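hey team, just a heads up i'm posting the complex here instead of the shared drive bc the drive is being weird again. everything in one block, sequence lines first with there labels, then the predicted structure for the whole assembly after. its two chains so it's a bit long, scroll down
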Amino acid sequence: MNYYLISNLITCLCALIGFIYGIAEFFKPKKAVYAQMITLAVGCVVFGRLYQMVRLITAGDISNEFQLGILGVIGSLLFLFSANYGAMDSLADDGSKSFAKYRLIAMTAPAAAAAIYVVFILICDFPLLIKAEAGVIAAFAALASYFNLKHLIFPDVDYGVINCLKAYNLLALIFDFLCIAETVAVSYNNELAVLIIGIITGAVLIAITPTVKRGIMKWTA
Amino acid sequence: MDSLIYILFVCLIAPLLLMLFMLRNRSRLLIGYMLIGIFVSLFVSELNTILLNLFSGDMLYVTTVITPISEELVKAIPVLYYAIVFSDDRDRVLPIAFATGVGFAMFENMVVLVENIESVTIGWAVVRGFATALMHAICTMAVGYGICFVKKKKKLFYCGTFALLSMASIYHGIFNMLVQSDYKYFGFVLPAITYIPFLVQNLSNVKKEKKA
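-- predicted structure starts here --
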């Protein structure tokens, strides 16, 4: 039984459901770009996983050389980062000193991402390609996780939109760390861990777009 | 064989170039960008030869991992140029992105035809004509969607375009992988499945505009 294939299949199917839901809900005129970007983040996972599956089915192996599937993870993390940094952050954080402690607390997420990478990958005896791929994923996950954690703890006093999106930010934060965890599991060739992480990732991805919808509805109500 | 590709390039581009001067406004823009797509395809065919040599002639790896990235990057450049210099209006950028992709696919099909002249059939032409053209057009249009934010929201533009480029490269890679495998029919169907929602949405928009 190929655990990698099953894990990718589960994640791909769950992400596909979330993606279709997001397309149906958010890709209409006058809908928030923020929600569209989160939908596209889920879409990136669909394509990335589909690539991995096709590669596994047609060529049999995905671990020896660089594969495009990694771009799916990078793309999804970039969309999550971009949605919060580009569309939402300026609504809550005016850069004043009174919010400095929240920015500082939020730094613990990228610090944790960096720590996981250093402890489990960088100082271990892995080929350069694995170290580089895991490093890139950890870097993008760190970027996205900073804003996800920040918006999870930030007191949004002016608009209230970030308060309504806390459930989404929690799910996105979990997803950021699942991306790193999966890279570690794949590097150690731990098939069972890959399968468990794949199932949890699928559950998170299927819930992300409806959570965003609920958050936006709560804000506009 | 290279010279034959250049001969085909001239044969294809000359009549379109002549027609370009007779057209106006939107038609000229679309045909112009189709011509740019053809030119980009010629450039990429040379670039791919260099990349193939760099990767020791491993055709499968290069076409499923390397060329999807290089092709999507090069195709996006003229669209980005238009968005920065002329207009980043979505109604203008998306059609020219589609035209660039179609022009690119037209010439790429000719290059593949020249390289496989002994084995090509009408069936090959039908499948490749529809599937490849759609695949290239959809990928370039997807990247064009992100490029539309170049002036409006720069923070979204940088990350969004990179992420869309990643998405387009993966989609391109899946297509290339499928068409070279035993499951090639899935590869031929994939662009059509992706194209139909765009088509339906576009037709419904046209209907709404007519009603309004």
